[in-house]
Amino acid sequence: MKPFLSFCRTAGQRQDLALVAVLALTVGMLIMPMPAALADMLIGCNLALSVLLIMVAVYLRSPLDLTALPGLILVSTVFRLALEVTVTRLILTSGDAGTIVQTFGEFVIGGNIVVGLVIFAIVTTVQFIVVTKGTERVAEVGARFTLDAMPGKQMSIDSDLRSGDIDQAEARRRRQELASESALHGAMDGALKFVKGDAIAGLIIIVVNLVGGIGIGTVQRGMAIGDAMSTYTLLTVGDALIAQIPALLLSITAAIVVTRVGGHDTDLGRDMVRQLTAHRGALRVAAFMLLVMALVPGFPKPVFLALSALFLLGSKPDWAALRARLRSKVPEIDPDDVLDARPKATGAMKRTIDAQEAFAPLIAITLSSSLDRDVERARLDQLLALAAAEVEGELGVRCPKPRVRRDHDGDAYRFSVEIEDVPVEQHELKPGYLLLHDDPVHLDLAGIEGETGHPILGRDASIWVPAAQEARLKAARIGYHDAAGIMATRFRSALRKHATRFIGLQEARQTVQRLESEYGDLVREATRVVPMQRLAEIFRRLVEEEVSLRNMRLILETLVEWGDKEARPLMLVEHVRQALSRQICHRHAGVQKTLAAFVLGQDAEQVVRQAVRDTPGGAYLALDPDASQRFLSVLRKNLAPDMARGSGHGLPVVVTSMDVRRFVRGFLVRNGFENGVLSYQDLADDFPIHPIGSIELAGTAGAVESARAQ
Hints:
With about 700 residues, this protein is of the alpha/beta class. It has 5 domains: about 15-265, no CATH class; about 275-325; about 360-500, Glutaredoxin (3-Layer(aba) Sandwich), CATH 3.40.30.60; about 505-580, FHIPEP family, domain 3 (Helicase, Ruva Protein, domain 3); about 590-710, FHIPEP family, domain 4 (Rossmann fold, 3-Layer(aba) Sandwich). About 60% of the residues lie in helices and about 10% in strands. The chain contains 28 helices and 15 strands. Strand 6 (about 450-455) and strand 7 (about 460-465) form a beta hairpin. Helix 6 packs antiparallel against helix 7 (about 170-220) and helix 23 (about 550-560) packs across helix 24 (about 570-580). The longest helix has about 55 residues, at about 170-220. The model is unreliable at about 330-355, about 640-650 and about 700-710 (pLDDT under 50). It is a multi-pass membrane protein. It is found in: Cell inner membrane. Keywords: Cell inner membrane, Cell membrane, Membrane, Transmembrane, Transmembrane helix, Transport. This is RhcV protein.
């Protein structure tokens, strides 16, 4: 038993060896004869794989969750053809193809050879002409449409990124999803040719088995023509059906995947039932038509009456309202049912809905039903309030109170953070587990086992610990988060990342008015020089680069000083940054108040400066593709090795001129760099500079073609 368990444990750790073993076995079946017992086992494995694939396709939430399907189609088709060769060898050499083939042939044929051949012909026709042909056409059209739509989708992603609707990580995820989608449709278009060829090969193999088997039986073994036909036809039909049925299941699996439209949040069964039962009127009309069919003479009345009743019950009729209507009475409305009836309310009833619920909340947290039952709402509200207060203390932006709501349709143990009804954070938790928020080494030292999952709190994989180990975690002083703590952490991250969404005209006015009691003259002068709309834009651009608005007095004084001289909000932002230089340097400095910095060379600055384009809609950077690639490669060469150099001086910053600073920063953000970009005016005297190097672009000319809006 121990060697078997050891083998299973090794096989689980080395999953790559499974494919190698299948391919080696396939080659072996093509060359070497196999015993009938082994053939039975391989036929069972073939059936099991086809059943598993079709079940996975049914419960699939998105076609992109099964991108390995084209490869599975190839491997399973080759394996099945090799198995056909093995069974054919057994039929022609010994007249014994194993128990499964023999039993299947006897069961299907039922003593009639013609019936077996007809059934095989029907199954092959259904697979070849109906399923495979249709699936192949859908995959071909889907691949063509997907490739044609790729440029538009990529431009849409770039547009959302430039406008700030999504961040760099979300844009990268969408591009990766788009590439996976196009690759899947292209691969499926080619993979279905294997299925089509498999169906043709099945027809040829059955003819070869019939002719060859009858010839061998009558000529070599001296059997009567009737006995030879009975024996070899039974085995041939059994072999053909036992091969064609898995092939048919595989074709249906491919058809389910390529014909899946939408439904990225539910499996196929729920998607179908929800859409079929969404229109109650259609169900009632169908029930009436079935009732009429039951009245047709000769039709089985119980069948149609039962189906009619089923459709009628599926439409969920309001029996109370129906009885009241039949009695010519107005149905009474129970006040306790008003909340449940709200989705169906019309006219005057709609006007009673709370105005707060009639519009999309600025920020909300949606919990699945199972998660909502397990989380203590009071503690969650407290943690969310602390997270909002922490972000407000860091950035000086008043964060709105989140609306915590329940997703009645969600069955998974998950939550999402939504800003203006658009999810910005979506995570699935493990019920009955705690999330480690500490060094995994401490977990090993304490002898506590955890399970690895998708990253939630950062880039590293998450480690889940059973809730039963909470006492041991506390005793070992190991940090962890429960469900409420995870949601508060992700909520805090969403607030920091999207803080600019919370600054509009009204919020900017409220932020300034908080200073009016002490600095009334300053506030009045600042709002006179800089209109409130421009003031809100300046605040948003400062917060976008995590510059706190807490020092509002200094911000307003700077705007009063430069507001009459400079009308462009972007340059006003640079002047405000210069006034807040100590605050900015403190955020980027290391433990000894030193700034590790790369200086952007004059040639690189000139390339960026020449690529800036001023339009009525605003200025943007349009680097030539070659210059952009060279600039990016130089940045990666200099900045990437120093990403981890945070212990002595903090994350290195890039220092450049004021007029190109924001364009350089935008270029770095779009390409995944987290380094800050400071102008020479942003450097405070009491924060010494630790120069690391210079970023030069020798030989690069500035020309502009591809537009990257800032």
